[in-house]
Amino acid sequence: MLKMNNISKVFRTDVVETHALRDFTLHVEEGDFVAVTGPSGSGKTTFLNVAGLLETFDDGDYLLDGQSVKGLSDSQLARLRNEKIGFIFQSFNLLPDLNLFDNVDVPLRYRRFNAAERKRRIEEALEVVGLASRMRHLPSQLSGGQQQRVAIARALAGQPRFLLADEPTGNLDTQMANSVMDLLEQINKEGTTVVMVTHDPLLAQRAQRNIFVRDGRVSEVTSNADASELLHKTAQVG
Amino acid sequence: MFIYYLRLAMLSLRKNILLTSLMITAIGLGIGAAMTTITVNYLMSADPIPHKSDRLFYVQLDNWDPNSPYQEPNEPPDQVTWLEATNLMAAGKAFRQSAMGQSTLIVEPNRPEQKPFVTRVRMAYADFFPMFDVPFLYGSGWTANDDLDRRLVVVLSKATNDEVFGGVNSVGENLVMEGRSYQVVGVLDDWHPRPKFFDLSTGAFNLPEDLYVPYSLKESLELPSTGNNNCWQPVSEDTFQAFLQSECVNSQFWVEFEDPDDQYEYLAFLDNYVAEQKKLGRFPRETNNRLSNVMDWMENQEVVAEDARMMMYMALMFLIVCLLNTVALLLAKFIGRTGEIALRRAVGASRRTLFAQHLIEAGLIGAAGGLLGLILAWLGLKGINGLYGDQINGLTSLDPNMIALAIGLAVISTILAGLYPTWRACSVPPAGQLKTQ
Ligand SMILES: Nc1ncnc2c1ncn2[C@@H]1O[C@H](COP(=O)(O)OP(=O)(O)OP(=O)(O)O)[C@@H](O)[C@H]1O
Ligand SMILES: [Mg+2]
């Protein structure tokens, strides 16, 4: 569903060349929940940006939903991002002047849904994240955890096949991080493929698969479906 | 989508009122200055009689000093003598023709409570009225026979009729001027061609005269010439006849053709006429006759004053400066928004969509600036009117064309000014701005 083969990405400045990704190969299946970990600067964000079509790559192939994304025009890429991909960022990136309703509305506007359809989807998405009653509030009137939930609602409203999250809990305390994680799990259970970058090993273990990135390469893949279940059980017992 | 962009634009403009008002003021000032001067130029150069300006021709004949032209390099005089006026009228070679000149008469109203007053008089021939499509409220012009018979007939302007006869239909009434009784044959409706093209020698933007009498009365009643009078040699004796027979130019001569091409035949006639006159010892210069249609004549007489044109160019330069200022302000505004732009790109806005969004914002600023500019232009024109008053009567009104031009100019120039900032804004990469706040 998301197939990267030997992707490489080089950042060039006047003085240095940084090989952010080299021979990066990864297949993510439909319905997967993948957690990406690795040291700082190893290329996790770069991978996610390439996966989300926010960044081009220099070499290799990338098939998204069976379609090669090489050579697509700006507006074709924008359309793919809009329809297939939902983003969640560490710093939420809500638009401060728009209320929650209008923030969730942003991707739907570019989708050209009619007003009724947009309204239905916005209300539903805010309902899922438990903020339906706050629709007319501005982001600044919410806590960090709530803001990240709005960002999730924004990512969900277009019903994307892929949810890409870059340290979605990085700015949150443990309790809020857990509730955001619960939300992501629930979304994944309903069929959305989730790829999440995180520094938190505990959160990473809750994913079905863990990918460890080092020096721009996938250095380790572990499947921990059982582990995650075990963890759940011990948590409940404890 | 347009409505959505408008809403976003309003939000963004409200967010930074100071920056927004700076931009609107800059554009408003530029547009205001440009529109004020453009309006004056536009009205100055308007075609006063569009449907026949190419069939009406002004006649010039060169009866001037053999040693120096009327005006360098070799311009014929801009008026004709009494002799030419009457001779060309007698020949009657054109479809319509009228010699004309300016004079004054003192009106002695019938009502005893009204004091006598001085009026500006246009002396002309019967053809004057149909030639220039002069509108009548009552009656009509006089006839060619009235011209020949030197009858005491008069056509009143609306204002004069209002003053002397209280605005009622005065056709058939008598009007006493300087001891003689004239019969009123017609009353004009409001009539103010701009420029007053039929006689540019007496102020291109003045009001037309207060009343009209046959040009032939000039001789019989010895009516003075009050318009421009130019002579290249002294008049032989100090009598009115000697003045009429002199080489002094003080009359205008207009002809109307059914077809503009008839001018060539008429010009040939004029050349013949001058050849005949040369045999009588007149016209010492080389034959230099000229026919100019209305627009050419206005061009020749520089109706659009050179300084008005200069003012317009300067105002347009000022507008450009204001726009450059707007470019800088918009650039600052849009670049301060890269985070939002990156986010919008990430969730599906293409470059083109963002381009539209930002151009609409620029256009909105332009429209607001245009409105402000219109108000400033209106004030500016009022100011000019206050300074120059009647001299430029009617040149200082904004018509719908000008209003549309002002708004259009403002929106288009602001969008142009917005192009570069918008382009910069849209080249923000979607990634990169999103990592940290
Ligand atoms: N726009 C850029 N220009 C130049 N170099 C870049 C750019 N973005 C990333 N890099 C470099 O590419 C490498 C990978 O960066 P990336 O952001 O993917 O790391 P990361 O794994 O997400 O790190 P972190 O955990 O700190 O977020 C780093 O060395 C980084 O300095
Ligand atoms: Mg990162």
TrEMBL record, chain A:
One of its GO terms (molecular function) is ATP binding. This is ABC transporter ATP-binding protein. Keywords: ATP-binding, Nucleotide-binding, Transport. Coiled coil: none annotated. InterPro entries: AAA+_ATPase, ABC_transporter-like_ATP-bd, ABC_transporter-like_CS, ABC_transpr_LolD-like, MacB-like_ATP-bd, P-loop_NTPase. Residues 2-234 form the ABC transporter domain. The lineage of its organism: Bacteria, Pseudomonadati, Pseudomonadota, Gammaproteobacteria, Alteromonadales. One of its GO terms (cellular component) is plasma membrane. Belongs to the ABC transporter superfamily. Macrolide exporter (TC 3.A.1.122) family. It comes from Pseudidiomarina salinarum.
From TrEMBL, chain B:
Residues 20-222 form the MacB-like periplasmic core domain. Keywords: Cell membrane, Membrane, Transmembrane, Transmembrane helix. Residues 314-430 form the ABC3 transporter permease C-terminal domain. It comes from Pseudidiomarina salinarum. The chain crosses the membrane at residues 21-44, 310-335, 359-381, 401-420. The keyword Signal does not apply. GO terms for cellular component: plasma membrane. GO terms for molecular function: transmembrane transporter activity. Signal peptide: none annotated. It comes from the Bacteria. The lineage of its organism: Bacteria, Pseudomonadati, Pseudomonadota, Gammaproteobacteria, Alteromonadales. It is found in: Cell membrane. This is ABC transporter substrate-binding protein. It is a multi-pass membrane protein.
